[in-house]
Amino acid sequence: MGRVTLQTVADRVGVSRMTVSNAFSRPDQLSPALREKILAAAAALGYVGPDPAARALARRSSGAVGVVLTDSLGEAFLDPVAAAFFGSLAESLAPTGLAVSLIPAENVGGHVPARDLPLDAAVIYACAGDTEAVEWLHKRRLPLVFVDQEPLPGSAGVLLDDRAGGRLAVEHLLALGHRDVAVLTMNSDRTGPGWAPDPRAPGSNHVSHERVAGALDALEAAGLAGRVYEVVDNHDELIVPGVADLVASPDRPTAVVCFSDLMAAHLVRAAQAAGLTVPDDLSVVGFDDSVHAQTVRPALTTVRQDFASKGRLAAKALTEAVARAREASDDAAEERTPPIERIPVDLVLRDSTAPPRPRG
């Protein structure tokens, strides 16, 4: 027997090529009995189904969406915040039948997956709009959903109310009586840790900028100056030396609001290693309510984000964008204004904050 094709199966069963195609790609168009008969004939002939590339070309759809990551895939899966978001996103997308491809933000060895991979749409997760992957996806005119990053014009967005979170953290510390409150965050433009010369200088990380801005808003509303201490990135090897320097600083604050629970956990350990007691000598507030918040001792007071809602809303925006792109012409699709969802946050009180100890 020669090469088995769609027509071979159709001839064996006595149906049209379209009916065989529907058995593989649109099962709802056939009765269960007819579909089983077609699949049994295909299996007997050794036919596994229409060529995926040809089918995607005919349908003008790949059936796949991308998730663009700033970090490497290994780092992303080790990050509990990113992993919780990915889990919710994947679970929400599962019923749609869309496959998910993870894409690095930058090219590796000249290969640019965002340029070459067949995709119907993409989630941009905490990546700046000028990264190479985002630029290529935008050039391809794919529907984009930005998560934890200000969306490009014409794109959907799912963001936390990070500014409100920074404000909540500082207001809690002010209510405890703290007047010397600093913010610990990240700034990839730095070459090493240190105090920021301009606390409100915009950085490349949207989330960091918003959380710092909210904290400074609350401090300034209370008539207090805000100080910001920066490390290069939100990774263990870059946080550890930075928090050690902060704890050893002669003008150490009485309380610190941290960009993440990971930073807060490292700050707590650095303070304890220096002979300080948390929260008596130093109050610490985290952000995210990740696993780090409850495994460090004392357990962290932190700003909680809803990982499940973030994943669900991103999946919803993604599937709606794919549906619009499939059904509408390019011009009609551009006329619609994609939604921007902003998810509220709340403060979780635990054991890492207390009124300041009087300084003798």
From TrEMBL:
The keyword Transcription regulation applies. Coiled coil: none annotated. Residues 4-59 form the HTH lacI-type domain. GO terms for molecular function: DNA-binding transcription factor activity; transcription cis-regulatory region binding. It holds the Pfam family Peripla_BP_3. SMART domains: HTH_LACI. Residues 327-360 are annotated as: Disordered. Residues 327-339 have a biased composition (Basic and acidic residues). Keywords: DNA-binding, Transcription, Transcription regulation. The keyword Transcription applies. InterPro entries: HTH_LacI, LacI/GalR-like_sensor, Lambda_DNA-bd_dom_sf, Peripla_BP_I. PANTHER family: LACI-RELATED TRANSCRIPTIONAL REPRESSOR, TRANSCRIPTIONAL REGULATORY PROTEIN. This is LacI family transcriptional regulator.
